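hey m, so remember when u said the tokens were messed up on ur end? i reran from scratch. heres the input so u can diff it against urs
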Amino acid sequence: MVYGRKIKRSSRLTEQKREVFLVKSGQITLVLILIIAGLTYLSRLPQFHIVGATTEGNSVTSNSEIEKIINQNITGYYLGFFARKNVLIYPKKQIKRDLMEEFRRIEDVRFSIIDLEELHVVINERKPDTLWCGVKKGEELEEKCFFVDPDGLIYSKAPSFSGNVFLKVYGEIGGSNPIGREFLPKSKYQSLKSFKSSIKQLNLVPASLVKLREGDMELWLNDGARLIYNLEQDIVGLSEDLNSILSNPSFKKEVENKGILDYIDLRFGNKVYYQFK
């Protein structure tokens, strides 16, 4: 009989714990429902909704293109409850990601809310530094060129230019669509820019550059001469070697006698090779 009382008492305690658990669970569920309902209500209040957008800094990308992507992202609800157009929870990261994926010319995007209703978008567009015009120089009669930004990223089609407005670059980039690809890794592209600047100081005018195999580069000057070097070389050393040969009296005399220079090859350290046409 003693064992029977213990079993009944244990059974009653289990039942009481179960009832307490169910009551607490119900209370928690009710609180969560009220919280969700309250937040849903607040998120849908018109006075906290984005009703328009303004843009700044976009000189190429049109306002309508930007607004289209914004509207696509702020239409509808999160999980079917919370308004996406609410100024506190609008999908800022998604809008930024979509804009930068759709328009590679956009480098950065910043947002702010004005008067709790207007989304102000500041666009930072890439600036052109050179033109990528295909794999091989002179391969097509009518070249189709693309803008390359100061970090070496190909980001947009370019119109036709007369004269040498930008340095034209050529070479393999991998893939059929050049937009979004690098002409060179960022560090190598910075070296190219440094070398280009240094030869301008020597009164040489670069017109185009061809990327060859194994890091070899051909920098064509506007008079048709070529400077051949390798991406792995030190730019300071290259500039010094080039300046040394150009200022050498015997080289100057050869230029006077032989005329048009074909190339100067700077790939072999202190040994500089050159040839006339």
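this time it looks ok to me. The chain has two domains: 46-125, 130-276. if urs says something different then somethings off w ur setup not the seq
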